[in-house]
Design brief:
By secondary structure, the chain is an all-alpha fold. It has one domain: Amino acid/polyamine transporter I (Up-down Bundle), CATH 1.20.1740. The chain is built from 21 helices and no strands. The two termini are about 25 Å apart.
Length: about 500
């Protein structure tokens, strides 16, 4: 077996974890949810959810994997052999997610490459809104199997960049994140300065920061805030298990998790400042929505062509915006692949680089489905099931398995091992994992089911039922049975001499 890679420094680990946590959702979903739920009110509830649920769960995953030096699958088996299937579900769900996330990454590259076209659209909001559809040839429905050449090329570029960043695991990631984490912050600051200097910007910032306390009575506010924290931190996706397994024994997990969580929130707030000041300055505040794809590819282009009366300058800001999204997307994309490859390599005693090549190749082939004219519709269906159903159920199961079948005092001791000034208190950590987090996630899951079945009659997005069954329910079923299928394969391999690692918590 190869010696396990390690982060070059504590700073590198924090950068990598922040890079994974900060993704496209920070730039487009967070501001949209703030607009939907009373601005500052959403920020307040989001902060509460981060403290009571997000940070303890982040600490939990990082500390367990640091102790075992294993990815998600083996770490969950170390907690309880019967819980191994949860690690498989998290890994399989991440595998599905990266198949379509890479295509969203490709679309962002496509818009960046074509941002020069904004120069000829000054004041023409309608034409700007249609640029994405013109380039991607998407129908928005389950219709059309052709793959536009430019989209295919951008997808190949996206996968090439993903593989390049993680070709040597922690070693290559350490080098990349020093650029990819700081670059979007710099680009966001440039856009924030531009947005805040526009007349009307203050109107947007007031909407973003001034709380509307009447929104607190809306249960969907709490559901969306919990969901955003949960999705944003890269937990329950095998990623933090992989990243934690590369940590040295001297890591201060208690403090690092807090830094990662609040860095993630800070970039979300900065993204909100950019979005609201720009939309306020262009008179488009009413168009800010929680729909990420629409915000990035339809709404924001309209704002870009109305930023100034100078076409080439608008094109420059368009290029900056999509370059910023590229730097946000790449960290999240390669971290998902790393989570999957580390978990599988650990389980089957394979060379990490070999597994990474295989994962990129297989996911790359599957991702071709999302590059077709019907790709946006397929992506919407798969994204809904992987996030609104699978990820939440995995979170509930993980909290129950770790909180109720293992000693949280042992895990907390690992969290606090190297901290002196800031020690995570047991009551906060234990109550979050055993009670608060599973209850909040269950409420989130129930709410999603009420919306799906109670409000929408069991159908999502108006797509054909057969498409929802294939890309939704069947994919979800495969995610949760993947562990049992793997167990059957492992039992067969054992007859040929394969020996599973002994994963135990050593005091």
């Amino acid at each position: 077996m190869e010696k396990r890679g390690q982060w070059g420094s504590r700073f590198t680990f924090i950068l990598a974890a922040v890079g994974s946590a900060v993704g496209l959702g920070n730039a487009w979903r967070f501001p949209g949810l703030a607009a939907k739920h009373g601005g500052g009110t959403f920020l307040l509830v989001y902060l509460i959810a981060m403290v009571v649920m997000g940070i303890p769960l982040l600490m939990m995953e990082i500390s367990i994997s640091r102790k075992f030096r294993k990815g998600a699958i083996e770490s969950m088996r170390g907690i309880n052999k019967k819980a191994e299937f949860i690690g498989w579900a998290a890994t399989s769900n991440a595998f599905v997610i990266v198949c379509y996330y890479a295509v969203v990454f490709a679309w962002v590259i496509l818009m960046f490459v074509n941002s020069w076209q904004f120069a000829g659209m000054t004041g023409n909001s309608e034409k700007a809104a249609g640029l994405f559809f013109e380039l991607s040839k998407t129908t928005g429905a389950i219709e059309g199997a052709d793959i536009p050449g430019e989209v295919l090329l951008c997808t190949l570029v996206a996968w090439g960049l993903i593989f390049y960043c993680i070709r040597n695991g922690a070693s290559s990631v350490s080098k990349v994140v020093k650029f990819t984490v700081f670059a979007p912050v710099i680009l966001l600051l440039i856009m924030a300065v531009k947005g805040c200097t526009m007349s009307g910007a203050m109107d947007g910032l007031k909407v973003f920061f001034i709380p509307d306390f009447s929104a607190l009575a809306d249960p969907s506010l709490w559901v969306d805030a919990v969901g955003q924290v949960f999705y944003s931190l890269s937990i329950m996706m095998a990623i933090m298990f992989a990243y934690g397994s590369y940590l040295g024994d001297d890591a201060n997990i208690a403090m690092d998790a807090v830094i990662i969580a609040f860095s993630d929130m800070a970039i979300s707030v900065l993204s909100g400042i950019v979005m609201f000041s720009t939309m306020g300055g262009t008179g488009m505040l009413d168009k800010v929505t929680a729909s990420g794809i629409a915000t990035a590819f339809i709404v924001y282009p309209q704002a870009i062509v109305n930023l100034t009366n100078i076409g080439w300058l608008n094109a420059v800001f368009g290029a900056i915006f999509y370059l910023m999204l590229i730097t946000l997307a790449i960290d999240s994309a390669f971290s998902i692949v790393e989570g999957v490859s580390a978990a599988v390599a650990d389980k089957f005693h394979l060379k990490p680089k070999t597994v990474t090549i295989s994962v990129c190749a297989i996911c790359g082939l599957i991702s071709l489905v999302f590059t077709t004219q019907a790709g946006l519709a397929w992506l919407d269906i798969v994204d809904n099931w992987t996030n609104q159903i699978n990820l939440i159920l995995i979170g509930i199961l993980e909290c129950i398995a770790i909180g109720w079948t293992f000693s949280l005092k042992k895990i907390l001791a690992e969290v606090n091992r190297n901290t002196k000034k800031f020690k995570t208190p047991y009551w906060w950590f234990a109550y979050s994992i055993k009670f608060v987090s599973p209850v909040l996630l269950t409420a989130l899951f129930v709410w999603n089911m009420i919306v799906l079945f109670g409000q929408n009659g069991g159908s999502y997005g108006g797509y054909p039922i057969w498409a929802q069954i294939v890309a939704g329910w069947i994919v979800s079923a495969l995610v949760f049975v993947s562990g049992f299928i793997a167990k059957a394969v492992i039992n067969k391999k054992k007859k040929d001499g394969f020996v599973e690692d002994e994963v135990v918590w050593k005091e």
